[in-house]
Task: inverse folding
């Protein structure tokens, strides 16, 4: 079964967090959302960019991101090009912006010895934060009345990174 890469822009997604981070180049600041869809998936989307770069505002599920990362051979690094297939036909900036978001959320970190290369980190702190937000009444999209109560742990069981 093929995983759905994105959630349509009009699908109900409960926005749990709105945050900002620098782009990977440091030339602009990105505003992004972390949400939880009614089909029990953590979602990411870039919402704004202070620079001139175009990007897609579509929601991308954490499980789709994980599927891509699981396909990267052991010993290979993660780069912005790793995410291009998720955004087929979209701006090439979007994959780099997504990587900046993942870096800011502590899901990847830059490798010291390889420029523009990243490695996957343990998502436990991120998962704990999302779980806490799910248990709270936070819903940052005023026009979105959906509330999702499915625990994120269940949704993430399928998307856990492989142990080395």
Result:
């Amino acid at each position: 079964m093929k995983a759905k890469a994105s959630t349509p822009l009009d699908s109900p997604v409960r926005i749990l967090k709105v945050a900002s981070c620098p782009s990977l180049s440091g030339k602009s600041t990105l505003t992004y959302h972390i949400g939880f869809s009614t089909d029990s998936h953590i979602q990411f989307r870039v919402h704004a960019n202070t620079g001139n770069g175009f990007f897609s505002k579509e929601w991308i599920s954490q499980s789709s991101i994980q599927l891509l990362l699981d396909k990267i051979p052991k010993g290979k690094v993660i780069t912005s090009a790793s995410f291009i297939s998720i955004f087929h036909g979209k701006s090439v900036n979007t994959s780099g912006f997504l990587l900046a978001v993942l870096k800011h959320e502590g899901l990847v970190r830059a490798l010291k010895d390889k420029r523009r290369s990243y490695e996957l980190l343990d998502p436990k702190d991120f998962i704990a934060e999302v779980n806490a937000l799910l248990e709270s009444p936070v819903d940052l999209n005023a026009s979105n009345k959906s509330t999702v109560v499915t625990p994120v742990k269940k949704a993430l069981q399928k998307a856990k990174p492989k142990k080395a």
Notes: The longest helix spans residues 93-104. The CA atoms of residues 67 and 140 lie 28 Å apart. Residues 1-5, 142-164 have pLDDT under 50 and may be disordered.
